[in-house]
Design brief:
4-stranded antiparallel beta sheet, Gamma-B Crystallin, domain 1, 5-stranded mixed beta sheet, globular, binds calcium ion, mainly beta
């Protein structure tokens, strides 16, 4: 199932809501502890996952109700013109991509968000809209989703080097790039 998430920019005026402070920010650096929030640790009951296909921006809180196939959720904040997971509070800004351990969006997931975004990614892919090394989670990603006009490009090696994919909008099975990504770039 491929969702058409293109929508009229003029409609994306939804104000950001700040989620509760219960969320944990987990940096993906190799030295970061792997703290997970489980799929059952949900503080919001009005999650609207269907908004992925709607005209409204997708915020971190919209993804809080993890699908049954998701076993753990980690967060990485990205910012324009930077590389590496940045400081940021899940709940601020918009989601740019989700990276999943298994095909068909299962296992652990990394919710990547840009705390500064209220609109989403630019239409082109030439600009740097953040990225990071996957650290502990390298060579495990098997499927990806993107949101808010963002695409993600996966690299075989750290620091956006080595073989890479095209910019991906949505892929439930990375095929030849399965379990290869060490770093990613958003645009
Ligand atoms: Ca995998
Ligand atoms: Ca690799």
């Amino acid at each position: 199932m491929r969702n058409d998430r293109h929508f009229d920019r003029a409609l994306r005026t939804r104000l950001m809501a700040v989620a509760s402070g219960a969320l944990l920010l987990v940096a993906l650096g190799a030295t970061a502890p792997a703290t997970a929030r489980t799929a059952t640790d949900q503080s919001h009951t009005d999650v609207q996952v269907e908004e992925v296909t709607s005209s409204s921006p997708v915020m971190v809180e919209d993804l809080e109700a993890a699908p049954a196939a998701v076993t753990a959720t980690y967060y990485c904040a990205v910012r324009d013109g930077t590389f590496g997971c940045q400081s940021g509070t899940p709940g601020d800004g918009l989601v740019v991509t989700e990276l999943f351990q298994h095909a068909d969006f299962g296992g652990w997931r990394i919710v990547v968000f840009n705390p500064a975004y209220s609109y989403g990614c630019t239409s082109g892919t030439g600009d740097n809209e953040g990225g990071a090394n996957l650290g502990t989670y390298a060579n495990q990603v098997s499927s990806v989703k993107t949101y808010n006009h963002c695409d993600v490009k996966l690299f075989d090696s750290n620091n956006k080097t080595g073989a890479s994919t095209a910019f991906i909008h949505w892929d439930n099975n990375l095929g030849s790039f399965n379990d290869r990504a060490n770093s990613f770039r958003i645009s």
